[in-house]
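step: validate -> pass
step: tokenize input -> pass
step: predict -> running
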Amino acid sequence: MGETKKKWFKIPHTYGIIFTIIILATIATYVINAGQYDRVEVDGRQVVIDNSYHQVASSPVSIFEMFTSIPLGMQAGAQIIFYIFLVGGAFGIIQATGAIESGVQSLVLKMQNRGILLIPISMIAFSILGFTTGMSEETIIFVPIGIAVARALGYDAIVGTAMVSTGAASGFIGGMMNPFTVGIAQGIAEIPIFSGFAFRTVVYLFVLTVAITYVMRYAIKIKNDPTKSIMYGLEQKYAGKADEFATFETFKLRHALVLLTLVAGIGVNMYGVFEWDWFLNQLAANFLIVGMIAGLIGGLGVNKTFDALVDGMKLVAYGALIVGFARAILVILESGVIIDTIVYGLVSAISHLPQTLAAVGMFFVQVLINFFIPSGSGQAATTMPIMVPVADLLGIERQVAVLAFQYGDAITNSIIPTSAALMGYLAIAGIPYEKWVKFIWKLILMWLTIAAVALVVAVMIGVS
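step: predict -> pass
step: emit ->
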């Protein structure tokens, strides 16, 4: 009678999924014919020569070699891994100063009496954090504030959550300066970091505008008739709890200086990328400088600054180390000399399609993979080494391959149950997963459509 029902299916751990792929890759070296393309260096990057694929001697990977592929993958992905750790640590320092939280709360409180205008303003603010800092799991701490304000304005928890989460998600999808997805993917693709900025900005504006309109329409509907709320009947459980969330420190001068330091640091990174050919090492170093200055300005002192640096690194350890595990797959495929055979098979399967449809196909492959590997950096490390030569052989710009990854990775994070950020803010908000899906699915379809159209346009105009 009091027994709990056993779950017959449990979503596997992401590392478990990656390790399973490592095992399958090892088995594949015994099954798939070894083969290679010839490559030449063009403008400093290795490019596959079309029609040069040929079979070579088989080189299967042993079980012990399968396990050694993991430390080898860590070594191969070291630059990306340490980049993630250092940038995560720098943002950990900025987070510890309380500047972002206090700034957001100050904005929310000042706009509280302006009702519906708070939705677009909040979503724009969070979208900026999304495309500059790659804000994802960090949105969780802001959800209670959004909900408190939304309820005070006559909306529900879904509006409060969407103000924060879909705003940040819109920026994450845009990804113009996202160091954890676009930056890493472009590094693997051997194209300039943060190139294609203008095209991404245009797509971002479409994505954000649709999201704002979507959330505002829902908010207006339930404001006029609360029974139309997806959360109607559950809201009473949280009634009267709005005030308990206003716990952040009042916005002060030092908070403003920290935010100005962050903005200046991002500006320097942008200039460094475009004028000084900065890459991951220089970007990480500059973020570290920004973090150190922010810690001192923010009143943390030396010891707390380094404590916050370590805490920030801990938060990104999951995503950073998964890059090494994902690179282990590539190590095995290269050791078994079958990665080019896989590329050859993919190209053969879609070579008869127009380039535009091939690009859209790459996008939906990334959407599927994102369910199993929701870590953006992990997905980039897993898929980009394969997608780049596929794009080369199909005559598609590498930038388009990065776009396909970027949109495929980002959009469904707002609906898939394997997304840690999504499940985190739904737990904080007290919103059942099925209720959120009922609210968000139409927006996800709109975003997917925008991305597919954007990829077609990118191919047609030759975004590079």
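step: describe -> The longest helix spans residues 301-335.
step: cleanup -> pass
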